[in-house]
Amino acid sequence: MAHTLDPAGGLPAVWTGTNGRAAVLRALEPGDDGLLGDFVRKLSPASRYQRFHVGVRELPAPWLDLLTRVDPAREFALIALASDGERAACVAEARYALDPDHDDAREFALAVADGWHGQGLGVELLQRLLAHAHARGVERLFGEVLRTNTAMLRLANRSGFRVATHPADARLLRVTQQLRSPWASQRIAA
Ligand SMILES: CC(C)(COP(=O)(O)OP(=O)(O)OC[C@H]1O[C@@H](n2cnc3c(N)ncnc32)[C@H](O)[C@@H]1OP(=O)(O)O)[C@@H](O)C(=O)NCCC(=O)NCCS
Fold it and tell me: Using DSSP, how many helices (H) and how many strands (E) does the chain show?
């Protein structure tokens, strides 16, 4: 699959969904903990569980802090913002981060606000993660997906990921996309 987006991420950018609703996509910034916290709190319990694989109602402050401190050498994170009347609200978040066991691999995760499902935002965000990782020389991108998460498995499938069993957790499947040959000498660029 070709990933032709601007390597810098082409952000900020305006995205328009299949039903005409628009959102601004931009890189996640250190001061976004409030936006991100609200976004996670407003997800349905099912979506929160699918995203974090634990039953939390909201993210504890240290976890939120960790998610908003993005190290550009090892991670990439973006959010989608839309007006909820008076102010901007986060309606989606997507990221990849270093896999501590494999220097050349990155693990991705994303979530879209329940009211925004099915309009193409998941596809857009995953394509952006793939393009960014590809431009950075990441060897492979993978995600851990609950077996019951039909929407994410469908999204991964249509985005070119292979699905395999998880080595350690029977609840999960691992979806992987090889972005470059493991034998290539190219290193991950900061
Ligand atoms: C998975 C998720 C990110 C998809 O986002 P989205 O914006 O709704 O996805 P899109 O509109 O881009 O659609 C992508 C594909 O998913 C499918 N899809 C979307 N919602 C679906 C649903 N409820 N059931 C089945 N398939 C669904 C779409 O049909 C589309 O596939 P298709 O083009 O083959 O028809 C979203 O459902 C979500 O945030 N879920 C909760 C968090 C989560 O599961 N995160 C994944 C952790 S790795």
Answer: 5, 8
